[in-house]
Structures are given as structure tokens and as C-alpha cells.
Design brief:
318 residues, DNA polymerase, domain 1, 2 domains, globular, mainly alpha, 13 helices
Length: 318
């Protein structure tokens, strides 16, 4: 474990190192491992543990977890971030309980309450008006290569509902046909497993325009090359975009468009879900397209849409 220091003391090194290493290595993706490692490091630093030994883990109580939670809240961490850190701790201690190293999980939700996060559509999905403004802002970009690249990214986020890391990692060879349909293979996903989505004609059109612009500018479009590259005037030019860069691009056009919301790339995923449901797609279809593990995630959008479609206020007549 690279980020979390471990002391192999009191002859218990193999006992301690095994579960911690197993906890991280047992995660499906490197991204999840890094997130868990950062959360654990944050917690142990807060309670004053620089080097982790088994006795320290056995001495941790729910009071330590509550104090950590309250400190995060006092520092204005987002509720979703606090709950994620609590979930990381809960998962670690749950494994240690199962392995017999501790008796009780001090981060169990019956002992440590998290924060309820508002999961309504408000603030999550972009309106059609906001989407149109962002699209116009992209169309006004004077650099042809930048404009065609960012238009293709916009299309993938809106119609594909992709996560920003998924957009950053796709290559030209990931675009394939299945019968009369075009699909996009996603080799690196949140689940750690390869997945695929259907590509609409509009998305393909913008990808093809961008590809031609790349060729005209002398860039490679070989099948194993990342589709989206940096066009900044620095050392990163020509290198694959990072997922952070995808977010920066989205924010740039939202600012240019005068959209008042704090727009992020992930909001396009919520927007894709909302637009599909409002267009008549069944929740199960949206779940499959966005690759939600649990239908409940998708149903939140369906239920909110349904409440607005047939709302009590519609029956009020004056």
C-alpha cells in the first residue's frame, strides 16, 4: 500500500499487512483503490496515527469516527464527500471484522449517521436552455480543431452519459459496429469491467468531423490512439486529455455561455438520464444505457419526473 504507512511491529506484521493490502487490492478499479487510500490516510492523520499498527485499529471507536465526521462538516466539506469518506471507513472495518481482527465495526451506520444528500433533479441536470447556450458557445470557438474536439466531447457527454474518465480513456478502436448499429466499447469504467453503449448518429457525425480535423492538422488517428488530445500551447499538447481536463473544458464553455450553475462534466450524465426519461424511455432502458448498478439510482429520476408530470398543483383551478 503506497499511500498509507504501515509498521510491521510486535510480530503482527503479517496479520496487519494482509487485511489492509487485501482490502485495497480487492477493489475492482485503480481509481477506487486510490480513493479509499486517500480517505483512510485522511482519517488516520486526523486521529493522530502516523504509522498504522493492529493495536491502533483495535482501539478506534465510533467516537473517533463521529469526531472525524463533525470536523469535516465544520470545514464545509460537501455532504457527499463526507459520506464517501465514512463509506471508506465502514468498508475497511467491515473487512477487519470479517477477518476476525476486530469485534465491531466502529463506522457502522447504526453508530455513525451520515448526511442525507439531496438527490432531486434540481441542480443536477442541465436545462435544455443551458445545453443550447453551451452548444452555441462551443460553435463560436474560432479554432477549428478545438471546436470539433469539444463538440464531440459535448455529444458524448450528452447522448452517451459517459463519465469524464471514460471520455478521456476511449481510443479510436473502441468504436465498432454490431449489426447495423455503432457501439462504443468502454474498457475502463467505474465497475472495473469493460462495458459498451450505443452511439447515436449525431455523436458519430461529430466524431468524424473531429477525426478529419485531426488528420488535416497532422495528428495520428491510429486505432489504438486516445481519441481526445490536449490542444494547449504547452508541453501537454498532443498528449491524451485527462479526466480533469474534460471537466475544465465543460466549465470553460459554461462560463462563456453565462450559465449560472457550477457546471461539471458529471452533470451531463444526470442530464442524459433526465432527457431520456422525459423523452419516454423506460427506467430499465436508462439504467442499461448509463450502466447503473442499481435501478434505484435511475428510479430517483423517474419518480421526480413523474411527480412533475402529474402534480397536485395541476388540479388547482382558480
Amino acid at each position: 500500500m503506497n499511500n498509507l504507512p504501515i509498521v510491521l511491529g510486535n510480530g503482527m506484521g503479517s496479520v496487519l499487512e494482509g487485511p489492509l493490502q487485501q482490502f485495497l487490492s480487492g477493489q475492482l478499479s485503480e481509481r477506487t483503490r486510490r480513493a479509499y487510500s486517500a480517505d483512510l490516510q485522511h482519517f488516520f492523520a486526523f486521529i493522530g496515527i502516523d504509522q498504522v499498527i493492529l493495536e491502533d485499529l483495535q482501539s478506534i471507536t465510533y467516537e473517533h469516527i463521529i469526531a472525524f465526521r463533525n470536523d469535516l462538516a465544520g470545514r464545509d466539506y460537501k455532504r457527499s464527500s463526507i459520506n464517501r469518506k465514512l463509506a471508506s471507513l465502514k468498508a475497511l472495518f467491515k473487512m477487519l471484522v470479517a477477518a476476525g481482527h476486530i469485534d465491531k465495526n466502529p463506522a457502522d451506520s447504526t453508530l455513525v449517521r451520515g448526511y442525507k444528500v439531496d438527490e432531486t433533479l434540481s441542480g443536477k441536470a442541465l436545462s435544455n436552455q443551458a445545453l443550447a447556450k453551451i452548444q452555441r458557445a462551443i460553435a463560436e470557438e474560432k479554432n477549428d480543431l478545438v471546436r470539433t474536439r469539444d463538440s464531440a466531447i459535448f455529444q458524448l457527454l450528452t447522448f452517451g452519459g459517459l463519465r469524464r474518465s471514460e471520455v478521456a480513456n476511449i481510443t479510436w478502436t473502441d468504436i465498432a459496429t454490431e449489426g447495423v448499429f455503432y457501439i462504443l466499447h468502454l474498457p475502463q469504467t467505474k465497475s472495473g469491467m469493460a462495458q459498451e453503449i450505443k452511439l447515436q448518429a449525431s455523436v458519430l457525425h461529430h466524431l468524424e468531423i473531429y477525426k478529419q480535423a485531426l488528420l488535416q492538422s497532422g495528428y495520428s488517428t491510429e486505432v489504438d490512439v486516445k481519441i481526445f488530445i490536449s490542444l494547449s500551447r504547452n508541453a501537454s499538447r498532443g498528449k491524451p486529455l485527462t479526466d480533469q481536463s474534460i471537466n475544465h473544458i465543460v466549465k470553460k464553455y459554461a462560463r462563456r455561455a453565462g450559465v449560472p450553475q457550477n457546471v461539471t462534466a458529471h452533470m451531463f450524465r444526470h442530464t442524459c438520464c433526465t432527457l431520456a426519461i422525459e423523452g419516454g424511455a423506460k427506467p430499465q432502458q436508462v439504467q442499461a444505457h448509463l450502466r447503473h448498478k442499481d435501478l434505484k439510482t435511475t428510479m430517483r429520476y423517474y419518480e421526480n419526473r413523474d411527480k412533475l408530470l402529474d402534480n397536485a398543483s395541476d388540479y388547482i383551478k382558480i
